[in-house]
Structures are given as C-alpha cells and as structure tokens.
Amino acid sequence: MIKNFIVVASGKGGVGKSTVSLNLSVSLASQKYKVGLLDADIYGPSMPRMMGISEKPSADKNKKILPYNKFSIKAMSIGNMIPEDKAIIWRGAMASSAIKQLLNDVQWGDLDFLIIDLPPGTGDIQLSLCQNLSITGAVIVSTPQEVSLIDVRKAISMFKKVNVPILGIVQNMSYLESDGSKNYIFGKDGALKESEKQKFKFLGDIPINPEICKSCDNGKPIVINKKLELHKIFNEISNRLINTISNNKNTEVKITN
Ligand SMILES: Nc1ncnc2c1ncn2[C@@H]1O[C@H](COP(=O)(O)OP(=O)(O)OP(=O)(O)O)[C@@H](O)[C@H]1O
Ligand SMILES: [Mg+2]
C-alpha cells in the first residue's frame, strides 16, 4: 500500500522540481520512512542521470517491473527504458498511459510516500495523475522570479480545480552567496511573499549552489553529504512537509467526524 502520493510541481520548467523531488525523497528516507520516487517527466526524464542509474530495469516472475533501490529509496523513470539521447514522441493519451503503467506495473510495495516528479506545465500528465490518484498534496517549487511565479499561479489554480491540496512552497535558487554576502539574482523572496499571500506554508529556501549542479550531473543527491548546509536545508524542508501532512490529516479527521 502507498500511504501518501505527493506531487512536486511548478508550472515553470527548470526551476528545480527534479532536484527537490530527489533530495526530498532521500531526506525522508533518512528519517526511516519508506519512500518511492516516480519520475513522471515522460518527455524529459531527469532521474536516471540525477541518481546515476543506467541499467535497464528488470521484472519479477509476475512480470511486475522492479524499482531501483538506491540511496535508500525506490525509484523508476521512463528514462531508464529508453536511451538518454532518444526523444519520446507521444501524444498526451499515450504519455498518460505510460505514467499509469509506471504506477501500476512497478512493484512499489508498501510505501509511506511516493514522491512524483512532475513535468513543467499544466498538461495531460498532470491532469490525468490528479484525476486518477488520490493525491495527498502538491509541493510547489519556484524561483523568486515573477516570470516563474506567473506559471506557478497557473499550476496552483489547476490543483485547486482538481481538489489537490497545496502542501507548501519551496523557494529554489533564492540567492548566491559569495564572500559572505548574498546576491539575490532572481529577486528577493518572491516565492516566500507568494506563499504568504496565498496562505500556503513556506517549506524552505534553497540557495544557488554549484555543488547542487554537480551533484545532479554526477548522480549523487546533494543531501547525502552531511557536511554541507544543504543537508540541513533539505531535512528542514522534509520535516516541515511531514508536519503539514500530519496537520492536514488531523483536520480531515475533524471534518469527517
Ligand atoms: N539551487 C540550485 N543551485 C544550483 N543549481 C541548481 C539548483 N537547483 C537546481 N539546479 C540545477 O538547475 C537545473 C534544473 O533543475 P531541475 O532539473 O531540478 O529543474 P526542473 O524544474 O525539474 O526542470 P524541468 O522543468 O526541465 O523538469 C539542473 O541542472 C540542476 O542541477
Ligand atoms: Mg524535472
């Protein structure tokens, strides 16, 4: 059984959804939760590279696909089934059915959390997932920049329409620190202010750090490096997320009683 389905989303591309999905998953697993990570970005899957997995998946005797087991999480991506340099050309319906297969035909087993890394935008994949699954909630990732927030608002409005609760906003690429001072390259606190305005929980701030870039390319999530401040930052984000989920569950119980 999968207890919680969490989607990581943002209307905007390239703002760090996959980076947050992976590091959040590994952070939750380090707190003894059973975690799976599903890369739902059919057209631009990042997980094989970010997790350093190049082998093709195998199946069990019942023809269920076995998820990878690395960094204490289970993971699966369409990217593991096709060569890295081959583009997938599918219509929306085919892409949605591929996602359904990744959900149903993978032997996920019992999980506390299945983190689903969504593609950018508010298209077929996002909609069909939200309509076919009982999603616990969405984690929104944004940079502080207005150009990113415009698309984020669209994603939030889509989640509202399909009754997926917003669990909070992560502000990524908040600032670049050099010589002890912070440079707010994408503007200051745009996503924080948006979370206040829309009354969503602010889950945390991730600075721009070349180590994050390197870790994504090298296939090792940055959060495993306990010496870095980023380790603490991702753990704080996952703790706040867990608190929000348990608070939401308490509220739900109160309502049904
Ligand atoms: N805080 C950060 N500091 C430095 N580099 C970062 C940071 N966050 C993400 N990156 C880098 O930015 C790029 C985009 O990140 P990522 O792939 O996680 O974004 P995405 O939102 O999933 O993109 P897409 O919309 O294409 O799926 C990656 O190369 C990643 O390594
Ligand atoms: Mg991505």
Describe this structure as you would to a colleague.
By secondary structure, this protein is of the alpha/beta class. About 40% of the residues lie in helices and about 20% in strands. The protein has one domain: Rossmann fold. Helix 5 (about 145-160) links the parallel strand 6 (about 135-140) and strand 7. Helix 3 (about 90-105) crosses helix 4. The longest helix has 28 residues, at about 230-255. The chain is globular, with a radius of gyration of 18 Å. The chain starts with a strand and ends with a helix. Bound molecules: adenosine-5'-triphosphate and magnesium ion (MG). Adenosine-5'-triphosphate (ATP) binds near residues 15, 17, 19, 173 and 206.
On the 0-100 scale, what is the average pLDDT? 92
* Number of distinct beta strands: 9
Per CATH, the architecture is 3-Layer(aba) Sandwich
What would you call the shape?
Answer: globular
Number of helices: 8
Following the backbone from N to C, one meets helices and strands in this order, namely EHEHEEHEHEHEEHEHH
The helix/strand class is alpha/beta
Radius of gyration from CA coordinates: 18 Å
Considering DSSP H and I runs of 4 or more, what fraction of the residues is helical? 25-40%
CATH superfamily heading: P-loop containing nucleotide triphosphate hydrolases
User: Which cofactors or ions or other ligands sit in this model?
Assistant: adenosine-5'-triphosphate, magnesium ion
In CATH, what is the class?
A: Alpha Beta
Question: In what range is the share of β-strand residues?
Answer: 15-25%
